[in-house]
Structure formats: structure tokens, C-alpha cells
């Protein structure tokens, strides 16, 4: 009797653990979804416009430094040592100013990346909400992003690609 009770207990335990092993998984391609979203194109264009303005400013600073260096080289024989050193310091100051500008704008926590995060945040929130709804509708326990770096996905079966469901959830029609 004691032995049969143990077997029944083990069977009940195995039956309860079975649903845990059968979790449903899928993946999406966030890059594909973003490229299909009309707002993403607008955001990219706005970022490109802002970036080109800042690049022009950086190029103007670099051109100014180059012009000052060429002018210094041309007038080098006419200047006293003190005047030469003053102009050289002026060029070094401009170079430092240029480097600081580039770091402030295009650096790791620069204004460009802050602007990008600011513009992308609403779109990413919409996308995350759509992903969450698709995951719940399809009873997915795990959903991977194929476009994420570094991607651990080596092979994907298209049957498990939920990118189109996310696009549908966002209200974006497929334009083939």
C-alpha cells in the first residue's frame, strides 16, 4: 500500500510539471517592424535633418581650424616667436572647442543620442504594448527579438515569427 501511494504521488507531481515544460516560444524582428512603421520614417528624417545641421557646424569648425593652420604656415616667417605661439595657442583652443563640440553632440551621452531616445520612446512604447498583446493572445511564455544585438538565435522557423501579428496589432497593413 505504501508503495502504490508513492507511485500515485509521483504521477500527480509529473502531471503538474508537464505544463511547465510545454511553454510556447516565438520571435519577432523589431528592425523589420520598425521599418514598416510610418512614424519610424518620420523620426529617421527628423534625426537626419538635426544630424546634418550639427555635422555642418562641426565641418565649419574643422574648416576654420584648417584655414588658421594654413594662414599660420604662410605667415610663419613674418611672425615673431611670441606672435607665432599666440596663434598656435588660438589654433589649439579651436581644436579643443571642436573636440568638445563633437563629444557634446555625437558622444556616448550626446545630444544626438538623447534626441534619438526622446523621439523613439513613444514608438517603442507602442511597439512594446503591441508585442505584449500578441504574446498574451498567442499564450507565448517567451518571445525573442531576432534583431537584438547580440542575438542568440541561430535558426528560426518562420512558423514561429510573430512580427506580422505585431504589425497587425499596431494597425499597419502589409504593402507587398
Automatic annotation (TrEMBL):
GO molecular function: unfolded protein binding
Swiss-Prot/TrEMBL GO biological process terms: protein stabilization
KW Coiled coil (keyword) present: yes
SMART domains reported for this sequence: OmpH
Signal peptide (UniProt feature, chain positions): 1-21
One Gene Ontology CC term in the entry: cytosol
One Pfam family this sequence matches: OmpH
Family affiliation: Belongs to the Skp family.
Protein name as annotated: Periplasmic chaperone for outer membrane proteins Skp
Organism: Algoriphagus aquimarinus
Amino acid at each position: 500500500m505504501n508503495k502504490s501511494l508513492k507511485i500515485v504521488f509521483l504521477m500527480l507531481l509529473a502531471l503538474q510539471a508537464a505544463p511547465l515544460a510545454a511553454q510556447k516560444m516565438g520571435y519577432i524582428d523589431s528592425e523589420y517592424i520598425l521599418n514598416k512603421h510610418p512614424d519610424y520614417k518620420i523620426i529617421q528624417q527628423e534625426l537626419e535633418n538635426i544630424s546634418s545641421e550639427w555635422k555642418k557646424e562641426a565641418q565649419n569648425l574643422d574648416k576654420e581650424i584648417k584655414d588658421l593652420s594654413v594662414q599660420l604656415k604662410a605667415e610663419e616667417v613674418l611672425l615673431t616667436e611670441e606672435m607665432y605661439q599666440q596663434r598656435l595657442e588660438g589654433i589649439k583652443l579651436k581644436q579643443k572647442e571642436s573636440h568638445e563640440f563633437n563629444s557634446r553632440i555625437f558622444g556616448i551621452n550626446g545630444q544626438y543620442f538623447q534626441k534619438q531616445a526622446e523621439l523613439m520612446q513613444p514608438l517603442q512604447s507602442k511597439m512594446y504594448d503591441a508585442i505584449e498583446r500578441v504574446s498574451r493572445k498567442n499564450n507565448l511564455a517567451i518571445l525573442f527579438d531576432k534583431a537584438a544585438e547580440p542575438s542568440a538565435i541561430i535558426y528560426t522557423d518562420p512558423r514561429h515569427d510573430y512580427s506580422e501579428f505585431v504589425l497587425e496589432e499596431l494597425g499597419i497593413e502589409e504593402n507587398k
